[in-house]
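User: Structure with adenosine-5'-triphosphate, tokens only please.
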Amino acid sequence: MQVISIRDFHKTYEKTVAVRGLSFDVEPGHILGLVGPNGAGKTTTMRAIAGILPPTHGRLLVAGHDVVETPVAAKRELAYVPDDPHLFDALSVWEHLEFIASAYEVADLETAGVSLLEQFELTEKRDAFAHGLSRGMRQKLAIACAYLHNPRAILLDEPLTGLDPRGIRIMRESIKQRAAAGAAVLVSSHLMSLVEGLCTHVLILSSGNQLFFGTIAEARSAYEELGGEASLEDVFFHATEGTRTQSEA
Ligand SMILES: Nc1ncnc2c1ncn2[C@@H]1O[C@H](COP(=O)(O)OP(=O)(O)OP(=O)(O)O)[C@@H](O)[C@H]1O
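Assistant:
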């Protein structure tokens, strides 16, 4: 069963057409990389799936729940971490976890919370206030909060922003672990090497148009003129600097 299922999603902001006709699925265990130049529509897509932005047209399902018609049921099954996570400056690291545990009725905060703090190397910061955390620590805390209620759909917008090399490794491993445990993960990134090494699937967007959706191997073979050895970066530039959509490839 698909955890994230998007059909013919369009979004227009007053005069700007941000996304035109996206359709894709993310299954349990799959990690979909959402890539595209600045302004392609990645954040718009994530915010719509998270139920923050109403779609102009189309159907968005999370764990079978329509995000427009049954938003509470859909939101219980997902976690969304924006590229500039908002924390509560007056709450400590542990109080953030307590707050999320209370909102999502997490039964075993102590075990799950302690384990997440260890995983993200925040144990020593347990009682520190959010306003005193570095950018990378804030990012790690936001992701720890996102994982706490074991969401079936995880949406991460540029999750590596501000992380040091060790933080990047921890984040990548955590995403793989979550997928291996059955989550469907959607990750936006400008780092093609990250997407190539981490993701099972890729969706290439440009100016709101879906240029390609499929596995990484399918992306390479979709553009025969690049030869079978093309990197995802080669595919990305070929797709986004040309004007062809997948059906024309
Ligand atoms: N609140 C808004 N009001 C009007 N237009 C918006 C709004 N948010 C985004 N847009 C426009 O929608 C389009 C898609 O923006 P979006 O932020 O989704 O792109 P993105 O792929 O996430 O870009 P980036 O890689 O720069 O983060 C852009 O043309 C942007 O200017």
